[in-house]
Amino acid sequence: MGLGAKIGATLVAVAVGVGAVVGTIAVIGNGEPAPPVAAAPPAEQQTAVRVSLLTRTEPGAGFHVDAQYAVVSGVPDRALQDRINAALVRPLDDFIHYVQSGLLDPTEDPVVQNTATIGRQDQKMVSVRYDLMVQSSQFGNHGGYATTWLNIDLSTGQVVTAGDVFDGIATDQNAMSALESRILARSPGGYCDGSEPFGERTPLGPQDLRPWGVLDVPALQAGFRADGVVFGLATDARNYPMACGYYEVVVPYAEVAGLMTPLGRELLP
After folding, report:
1. Contact criterion met (CB below 8 Å) for 109 and 64
2. From CA 204, how far away is CA 228, in angstroms rounded?
3. For the segment 13-64, what is each residue's pLDDT rounded down to a tens digit?
4. N- to C-terminal Cα separation, the chain
5. Pick the CATH number of 1-13+49-160 from 3.30.565.40, 3.40.190.150, 3.40.50.150, 3.90.226.10
6. CA neighbours within 13 Å on the CB side: how many for 40?
7. Could you tell me where the DSSP H helices lie in the chain?
8. CB atoms within 10 A of CB 29
């Protein structure tokens, strides 16, 4: 499917200036000018990396698209920038494919939408939340939307997940329990604004990093802001009513830094 676009948008930049020292001439006691002081070499320039939100609009077979997605510019390595931008548009492409394969009534023409929210953008990382939706009853009450965090390491172009950032949580229940204790300290009422789950709440476990919902989004996600980690939870995986939906808890970096992998600590702002 082609990538048509009307460029919408919000442009956010991280800019680093360049300093320089110019040469000077001193006058000594006999009135003769001293030799010029050599100019200092210019400081190393750091290219500004910009994150933009674009809007993609195009017709589809039985639906149409009017959705945001993020792109970066200013990455010195053009091949790396292309890999980053391919990763940033992939969730939208995947959701469009999901809609296309699930439509039963081609005459309805629902709209595929996405709202992109930049959580963090600096010289180390881009972290964006996508809220994808198709306005169609054909996908039921909960099949027509997905919320996903997409985190890109700008030095490699690799997607960064919770399992990459927090040590041992993909395999060790004790490691996951230690992380959940930090999350619950910031959300003591649980994961649904104080509403109780059906029966006993299911603790977070390594299995929550495996595919769970639409687009195989895991039941536990991590996103990033300037002030901390955003933990996104599928509350139905915790035995909460489906009406609780998707829930977020923000934990300051200082409270979870001790649980991080070397990569996680390297990506701290």
Report:
1. yes
2. 20
3. 333 333 333 333 334 344 555 555 555 444 444 568 999 999 999 998 889 9
4. 36
5. 3.30.565.40
6. 7
7. 78-102, 162-165, 173-186, 253-256, 262-266
8. 5
* 78's tokens: 């053009």
Cα distance between residue 263 and residue 151, in whole Å:
13
For residues 227-254, average pLDDT:
94
Q: What is the pLDDT of residue 159?
A: 98
148 closest CA partner among 247, 94, 221, 244: 221
DSSP classification of residue 238? G
Task: Report the distance separating Cα 254 and Cα 239, nearest Å.
Answer: 30
Q: Tell me if residue 116 falls in helix, strand or coil.
A: strand
Q: Does domain 161-269 have CATH number 3.90.640?
A: yes
In angstroms, the CA 148 to CA 95 distance is 11
For residues 176 and 206, the answer to whether their CB atoms sit within 8 Å is: yes
Q: Are 54 and 7 within 8 A, CB to CB?
A: yes
Domain boundaries, the chain: 1-13+49-160, 161-269
Which secondary structure element, helix H or strand E, spans residue 69, and what is its range?
Answer: strand 64-73
